[in-house]
Structures are given as structure tokens and as C-alpha cells.
Amino acid sequence: MPKATAFSKLEGFEWDGANLEHIAKHNVKYSECEQVFQNEQLVIFFDKEHSKIEKRYKIYGESSTGRRLAIAITVRKNKIRVVTARGQSRKERGENK
């Protein structure tokens, strides 16, 4: 699993209509996803369940406005490709019901 600092060595993000449309369904903007990677407090998990074809990672972090996001990514051609992004659930935030 790459360390958070390894993501800083990547060359940016890969966006297209498909992933922009998908995150918009969750009311997330691409700029919020990019902001999460500028925050030093990333929580990164290797997503073994969804890594059949390519390696995927789950990222928990905050946008610059403090919105907590759960993001699924893969790395393609040295760029971060957001597969999906949404607000974190209560469980992901560590809150009880």
C-alpha cells in the first residue's frame, strides 16, 4: 500500500465524463476530491475486494471546507483516478447512532 507521501509524487488527476458524472450523483465536486489529497491527514486502505483488475484504494479525508469524504481511487499512468466519492457514513466518521 502506498504511503500518503507517495500520492504527492503523482502527476495529478484523471477526470472524464464518466467519473465526474458518478461523483456528481453523490453531490461531490471534483475540486473537493482533489482537496482531500492536499490534506496531510489521509487515511488510506488497500481495497482488496475491488482490486481484481487494478489496485484500488479507499481514502478517508477532508476537503478544505471540512467535509469528510470517502473516496475510492486507482492509479493510472501516474495519475489518480477517482472511481467514486461520497460523504463519509457515521461509521466511517467513528460516530455512534
Main attributes of the structure:
4 helices; globular; alpha+beta; 97 residues; 4-stranded antiparallel β-sheet
Structure description:
With 97 residues, the chain is α+β, with helices and mostly antiparallel strands. Strand 2 and strand 3 form a beta hairpin. Strands 1-2-3-4 form a four-stranded antiparallel β-sheet. The protein is built from four helices and four strands; from the N terminus they run αααββββα.
Secondary-structure blueprint of this entry?
Elements: H1 4-7, H2 17-24, H3 30-36, E1 43-46, E2 56-62, E3 68-76, E4 79-87, H4 90-93
Antiparallel strand pairs: 1-2, 2-3, 3-4
What's a concise summary of this model?
The protein is an alpha+beta fold and 97 residues long. It is built from 4 helices and 4 strands, in the order H-H-H-E-E-E-E-H.
Count the strands? 4
The shape is: globular
The succession of helices and strands, N to C, reads HHHEEEEH
Provide the structure class. alpha+beta
Taking all Cα atoms into account, the compactness measure Rg is 13 Å
Helix content: 10-25%
Widest sheet: strand ordering: 1-2-3-4
How far the N terminus sits from the C terminus, by CA atoms, comes to 31 Å
Poorly predicted sequence stretches spanning 5 or more consecutive residues: none
Largest sheet: 4 strands, antiparallel
Strand-residue fraction?
25-35%
Overall mean pLDDT: 87
Q: Helical region count?
A: 4
